[in-house]
Amino acid sequence: MRGSWAFRRLISRKNLVWRYHDGFPHLFASVHPLNTTISPAQPAEQPVDAFASTRFVLVEPSHPGNVGAAARALKTMGFSRLVVVAPKIPFVTREPEAIAMASGADDVLASAQVVETLADALSGVHWSIALTARTREYGPPQMAPRPAVAKACEQGRGGGAIALVFGNERVGLSNADVERCSAIAHIPANPAYSSLNLAQAVQVLAYELRLALLDRPETAPVAAAESTIASAPSDEIEGMYAHLEQALVALDFLDPANPKKLMSRLRRLFSRSGLEHEEVNILRGIAKHILLRVKR
Ligand code: SAH
After folding, report:
1. CB within 6 Å of ligand 1 — which residues?
2. Which atom of ligand 1 is nearest to 195's Cα?
3. How far apart are CA 241 and CA 148, in angstroms?
4. In terms of pLDDT, which residue wins out, 31 or 13?
5. pTM for the complete prediction?
6. What is the DSSP letter of 224?
7. Strand 16-21 vs strand 24-29: parallel, antiparallel, or unpaired?
């Protein structure tokens, strides 16, 4: 997988250890604490404090200065949760350039979580926005940043954890990364030159999300018609896709040697609907019964 070499270099420094927790391997810092675990999302029943819990995820950033500047962008807008996926420089949050660019947001930088994959970063997240400088043929529905953050706020009010996902400075987000998210947002910049610096894109979205959150305080009563059920968390949805894919292969509907874009199209279809927990369970139930029947 793209970028995992960097993380392997990180763990090879012998200051991280694998430990099993909840049946899954997690990396823990053993000597110098680097935050490599994602604290669980709150149960999806009560409104969450979106300023404290929203994850700003940087996927494989190359430049320490951008990571520091992103930390500063978050803090100026009242956010604090920075997650870095497989950074090119393993201990990027301790690089002098990152610390200098963070300026007074060195606390946000120091508490940034460093994880190996986007799946780790999105664990427990119910609604995520992929920020892309280019349009994509496949992937979840495309929205302008303002409606995208408005929808994120609704999810927060329904008890769902939210995340904003940004790509690498040179290549942006991969299609697979984009397809893991609930929506795509593009900052409508100058069409002749629309690629913003990574930290500046973080700043724009943090500002938009701040305005949206301040406009609809968590404490305001939610009208019955407005109440939102949070989407199913990312990990549940990914588990469902894997299960469904297995069932479609067993049915000979999907040829693993020539999968074409079937799973991408199905992802697109389901992401338009905003799957809830119960709906994911129904789809898994269907996949399970297909597999049972086909094996007979
Ligand atoms: N050359 C890359 C752009 C990388 S810019 C590409 O073509 O994809 C680094 C990151 O900043 C992007 O992955 C995206 O998350 C964010 N970004 C930059 N410009 C943006 C824009 N106009 N809209 C949304 N996100 C943008």
Report:
1. 131-134, 166-167, 169-173, 186-187, 189, 194-196, 198, 201
2. 19
3. 24
4. 13
5. 0.83
6. G
7. antiparallel
